[in-house]
Amino acid sequence: MIxxxxxxxxxxxxxxxxxxxxxxxxxxxxxxxxxxKGYNLLYPHEQPDVFLLNNCGQIVxxxxxxxxxxxxxxxxxxxxxxxxxxKRSSKVTGNPIWSGGGGGTVEKRDWNNKLLWTFTLNxxxxxxxxxxxxxxxxxxxxxxxxxxxxxxxxxxxxxPATLANGEVWSDKIIEVKPIxxxxxxxxxxxxLWDHLIQNFDSTKANYGEPENNPGSVDINxxxxxxxxxxxxxxxxSYNIGYDQLVVSSPSFNEVWIVDHSTTTAxxxxxxxxxxxxxxxxxxxxxxxxxxxxxxxxxxxxFFPHDAHWIAKNTGEKNxxxxxxxxxxxxxxxxxxxxxxxxxxxxxxxxxxxGNVYFPKTFYWAYKRxxxxxxxxxxxxxxxRLPNNNTLICSGQQGYTFEITPNKEIVWEYIxxxxxxxxxxxxxxxxxxxxxxxxxxxxxxxxxxxxxxNLSPKGFIELNPDTAFCQISVGIHKITHSNLIHVQPxxxxxxxxxxxxxQGIYQLxxxxxxxNSVFSKSYQNVVTIELDITNVPSGIYFLGINDNTIxxxxxxxx
Length: 557
Hints:
Blueprint: E1 9-10, E2 26-30, E3 38-44, E4 50-54, E5 59-63, E6 69-77, E7 83-89, E8 105-109, E9 115-120, E10 126-134, E11 140-149, H1 150-155, E12 167-179, E13 183-191, E14 196-197, E15 217-218, E16 235-239, E17 244-249, E18 254-259, H2 264-267, E19 283-285, E20 304-309, E21 322-326, E22 335-339, E23 343-344, E24 349-350, E25 352-353, E26 356-357, E27 364-366, E28 381-384, E29 390-394, E30 399-403, E31 409-414, E32 417-418, E33 421-422, E34 436-443, E35 484-487, E36 494-511, E37 516-531, E38 538-544, E39 549-555
Parallel strand pairs: 14-15
Antiparallel strand pairs: 1-39, 2-31, 3-4, 3-34, 4-5, 6-7, 7-8, 8-9, 10-11, 11-12, 12-13, 16-17, 17-18, 18-19, 20-21, 21-22, 22-27, 23-24, 25-26, 28-29, 29-30, 30-31, 32-33, 35-36, 36-37, 36-38, 38-39
């Protein structure tokens, strides 16, 4: 029987999703009219797979791995649709270097999960951990521990009383250039060990007062001073506009900025690069007591995670500002904060008052009114979205939510795993049972989605409520119908969509109840051919781009 299709111009009215008592995992709530439209990248702990979810919590893509693989800890979606992920083995007993956040391997996999490139650094003296950062030139920044012996630590002025564990791990950042499928070149390196100060042993070359050397790091200061993973860097983010890196150290309760314009040789010294400071810290903020320049009342950061540049190039909104998840901001709550360093573009340096860098306090801050609802003593992430909403992942709670500029919660999701096993809708989870290092949302117009199949493929949680997330569509005439043409009418197997000019287009087909049938992106096209052979009879709505334009489609058998 011939399928008849008729079309009228229309647009969507999105309605919020009401709470349901049984919803304890997966999507908890969403206001689709206010939430930023996109897809959420999820890499939960204690299991091997990476998930890309739509805003209804449905899987649109999944990258699987061997059962004994674990996050190590981050994953990024690249503009070609591939992912760059960190991983490690679930078995860590006997590893020469192991602590929370430990990784070891970085892999690049395409949209279909084909392994494109792999790199491993996990031996007796080095181990990748926590975070990586893909660079615009295709290289990758990676954080690694560097094991140092007691003798090496004492030679740097470390107090032997804090070396009961027999070794200390410093941090380094390497820039790796991928070559082929499993080769590489390390093209740049910065080592914290080259930039230490101490006032414990005057016989050592790096003796001096920390307050007079804010560009160096006191080897005898840290809240984790007695453990091996001493500085414990947990994030790295690159600013292409300044050619600088920002990292966060939870044990120093600070964020640090390093000049990336140096050579590796310069990065080991106190001179060179645009800053003329070599590898010394250009900026540090959050805890002046870490270099004897403040007291507890001056501290602003408490075990921070996910320090990153909000915008990475000049001219972008919020360029130069730093976002950070402030894990232990209070006794029973976390906060998310924006720092606006005072950077003098002409002098190419960050300004300070005496020894302490500006500002005195945060540019922006948020904590939940119901404070314990946002409380994770470790892990966690924050992201400023293009519509000025903020996506927040409280890592140990496995709880991700989105707020508007008015701090209205418009989307909530709870990671549906319990120590790596999928749970049923209705199950309840305790803190750290569904730990999630980060969650990041990529807009529906993200380049990596062009030509990809983004149709829903089920849910992570078992026994899901498949009807919970629906889009209500109202039919209204709009004035620019001449921009979009759909033909033929009637049609049998294929549907042709023509647009007025070449560009990037996202097509989304929804059933009359709002369930997504498929979603696909196209680049540099004016005509798009859709195969509708397997679409059942019924009423459908074909959304264009951010669903601001809809075609109502009637398929009759």
